[in-house]
UniProtKB/TrEMBL annotation:
InterPro entries: DUF4112 (IPR025187)
Entry keyword set: Membrane, Transmembrane, Transmembrane helix
Pfam families on file: DUF4112
Entry's transmembrane regions: 38-59, 71-94
Record's protein name: DUF4112 domain-containing protein
Amino acid sequence: MNTAARLRNLNRIRRISRLMDSAIRIPGIGFRIGLDPIIGLVPGVGDAIATVVSAYILFLAARFRLPAGVLGWMVFNIALEAVVGAVPLVGDLFDAYYKSNIRNLALLEKHLQVEEPQLEAIDPLNLASVPTE
């Protein structure tokens, strides 16, 4: 994959991660949620759909040939959110707080800052742009 394709892939990961975990600001308190905890409210299939989307993000991230340790943490984040998220209501609150996709985006961007300076020349890979609240 050339640099332009890698950057497109990274931006796709960013868009999906933010949509799932931090797209909506709750007025008054400023806390951000995404579609993940909202989809999780659908009994039976909501958490499965959110996990499939997270797995797709992981698939896209794996194209960067991440080391096993980084991929392991990404899988852990997704698995933890899937397991705890399956608990009715409490799991949805956990999904809103834990934000596994944003955590995985931060892991990916931190790795890319070190390993792929050509991407950083085109795109600053600014980790401050990853909203964690």
